[in-house]
Design goal:
Elements (H helix, E strand, L loop, with lengths): L2 H8 L7 E2 L2 E2 L21 E7 L5 E7 L6 E5 L7 E4 L1 E3 L2 E2 L2 E2 L2 E7 L7 E6 L7 E4 L7 E5 L7 H11 L5 E5 L10 H14 L4 E4 L17 H6 L15 E5 L2 E5 L11 H12 L7 E5 L15 H16 L4 E4 L5 E8 L2 E2 L5 E5 L20 E5 L3 E7 L4 E8 L5 E7 L10
Parallel strand pairs: 13-14, 14-15, 17-18, 18-19, 19-22
Antiparallel strand pairs: 1-2, 3-4, 4-10, 5-6, 5-11, 7-10, 8-9, 11-12, 13-24, 16-17, 20-21, 20-22, 20-23, 24-25, 25-26
Amino acid sequence: KSPYHVLSLLIITTGLAAAGDYVRPAPGKSLYVSLAGDHSKNAPQQVHISLAGDAKMRISWITDDMTPSMVKYGKSPGNYEGSATGTSSTYRYILYKSGHIHDVVIGPLEPSTTYYYKCGLDSSPELSFRTPPVQFPIDFAVSGDLGQTEWTKSTLQHIGETGYDVLLLPGDLSYADFYQPSWDSFGRLVEPLASQRPWMVSQGNHEVERIPFIHKERFTAYNARWHMPFEESGSNSNLFYSFEVAGVHVIMLGSYTDFGPGSDQYKWLESDLKKVDRNRTPWLFALVHAPWYNSNTAHQGEKESTHMRDAMEDLLYNARVDIVFAGHVHAYERFTRVYKQQFDKCGPVHITIGDGGNREGLATRYKDPQPKISLFREASFGHGQLRVVNASHAKWTWHRNDDAQPDSMWFTSLASDSACVV
C-alpha cells in the first residue's frame, strides 16, 4: 500500500459508547472489493448513473483497456432501440494511472420507466435502471460519509430495500484518502445500486486529496470519476451544481471550494436561485458537506461550516429553501426550521446525516444541554428516506441500521405557507 494510505490509517479515530440498553456499534471492518479473477479487461466495471438534464441520464463506467464509449439501451431486454456515444478519459495520481473512464449521456427518456442497457462492447452484461417520475410522489434516499466498511454494506442493503428513485449523497464517498485503488473498490461496492438508480453526489473533505509539492490539484479522482450535471445547470465547476426532478429543485454546494461573496460558487448560487420557479418545483433542497448547524462536539468551528453559513445563509433563507442536508459529522441530527442560529418558521430544516458507515467510526459526544433548535440527535449508523408526497407535504424518516429505530417527521413546503411566500 502507498505511504499515503498508511498515513491515513494512522489518523483514524474510533469511538464506542453506550446509552441505556442500546450499545453504540464500533467502527466496521474495512472492505476492499476486488474484481473477479475472470473479469475481462474490456468489460465494464464501477457502473453508475446520474441525472443529466431534462429527461437524460449520464452513464459512467471504467474499463482496463480502451473500448468504445457507447451505450445501447431500450425498454425491453435485449432490444436496444437507442444508442449514444460519449467520451473517455484517464487520470494520474502520483504513480497510479486510472482505467479508461467512460462518460455517455443518453436520452430523451420516458419517466418512471425501466430501461435495459449495455456499456461498451456487445459482449458486456446487460444492466437496467429505472427513471424517476416527473410528478409527485418521489422518493429520495439520503446518506453521507459512506466509506467502505461492513456498516457501509449494511447501509447500502437497507437503502436498496426502500424502492427509492434518486439517491442524494452530501460528500465523502470512498475514503480513499490518497490510495487510489480504493476509489476502484468503492465503485465496485456501490455498482449494484448506483447502476440502477441515479446517484447525485457532492464532495467532502476526503475527496480533496491534495498533497503539497507532490500532487497540487484538488479533487482529481472525484472530478474524473463522478461527473455531475454542472454544465447543464450553468455552473463552471463539478463541485457545485443543481438539478430538478419531479417538482423538486436540488442545489449541491461545495464546502471545500471558494464560497464567499464574489466567488464563482456564490455568483452561480445567486443566479440559480433566481431561476427557481416554485410553481414548477414547489420544493427546494440544498446539500453541503460540512454542517452549518451542529451540536455534536466533532467538527466545531470549522470555516467550511461557520464561514460558509455566514456567506450563504441569507441566500438560502431568502429563497425559502426547505431542507439543508449535510454530512461530515458521523452521526444523525435533525434541527427545527432555523435562521441566524434561532428558530424561524420560514427558515430551512437542517439535517446532518454523516452516518453512512465510514471507517472512522461514530461521533458519539454531543454538547450538553441540547440546544433548543436541535430536535433529535443520535450517534448511530443509518440512512434517510424522504418521500415528497405532493406540492405541500413530505415525510422524512431516518432509520438506525442495526435495529431500524426511526426518527420521523412530516414537513410542509415553505412555498405552500402563505406566511413565508416572498
